[in-house]
Amino acid sequence: xxxxxxxxxxxxxxxxxxxxxxxxxxxxxxxxxxxxxxxxxxxxxxxxxxxxxxxxxxxxxxxxxxxxxxxxxxxxxxxxxxxxxxxxxxxxxxxxxxxxxxxxxxxxxxxxxxxxxxxxxxxxxxxxxxxxxxxxxxxxxxxxxxxxxxxxxxxxxxxxxxxxxxxxxxxxxxxxxxxxxxxxxxxxxxxxxxxxxxxxxxxxxxxxxxxxxxxxxxxxxxxxxxxxxxxxxxxxxxxxxxxxxxxxxxxxxxxxxxxxxxxxxxxxxxxxxxxxxxxxxxxxxxxxxxxxxxxxxxxxxxxxxxxxxxxxxxxxxxxxxxxxxxxxxxxxxxxxxxxxxxxxxxxxxxxxxxxxxxxxxxxxxxxxxxxxxxxxxxxxxxxxxxxxxxxxxxxxxxxxxxxxxxxxxxxxxxxxxxxxxxxxxxxxxxxxxxxxxxxx
Length: 440
Known about the structure:
The chain is α/β, with parallel strands linked by helices. It contains 17 helices and 19 strands.
């Protein structure tokens, strides 16, 4: 992806930083200010793409030529040899997190840390948004197959691809997006479209031809008469063709599922599954759980996070040249310094309370933020997506029941430590100076 995928002000600030020799070490943190309504937690995602971006970021000749029309030669000279050589600390992908908790911290020379802001936010925001949306369907239907059907209505190709990754990381069974299967190793699933049925003069011929080409496949049976089509599926099975499942995509899914299940069972197809799709979200999935439906394809509502299509996230300067920095804007104040999140669990291992404090603090609990990049290089290879998915599922198991519901808003306790609160007050009073001891 082009290094020009950034807001203009990243470059205008960079010019001023260079002209004023403001190139000392800076610390920026990415966090979400508050959770959307009906979101009891968020799922961190997008770290691997962010690290890829930082490792690979460089300016091509044509990009430098374009920038030379807008910026003086010292800026172009700087960008010509630009390489990110800073440090990154982060929560692992699949981590459960809450409001104001940083999930990524970048420490680098100020011009570098500033320049990467837009793309870092773009990646972390989108994948976290989609993973957090997908988590709700996973918790609503933990024993059903869930498949991402969202590419065709995603807001662009990259969004569709990364939504497939984020939803699988969050616990989906797979995706219909073929490129996601190749690029990320995600299981791919697919059935047929109504057009395949309509292209044949007889629905029975469409089913027969598809089943012959793809033994054990899933047939779409609601193009004309759903129950009559189910009877045709039974007839095909009696011809010796292997039918893995049928898909319902319209109408009263609950009613059709019950009728189709009865037809299949009476025809001896008890192992033939019923898969449903058609403008579904976590709420409709939950309503359909008492129906004989074995899996769900979820598309538009997932890849657009339809009920809450954005997170109130930020990437803010927390320290420059050893000096803690704090924004005090009304409604957007930040907590200064390099921070850590300390998590306490109850005797059953469930989440109990988080405390946000400084990295130098020594509070009781699990430290959630750790090093992932040093001198611009990853400390570990890119994680296997299946391992990330497994980690996320384990994290769901640690959620208290109050946070697992999708129908009620419950607030998890996130406290600000005394050390961090005191530092903020000292910064407000102008008592913190470069290289001063934060913990003093």
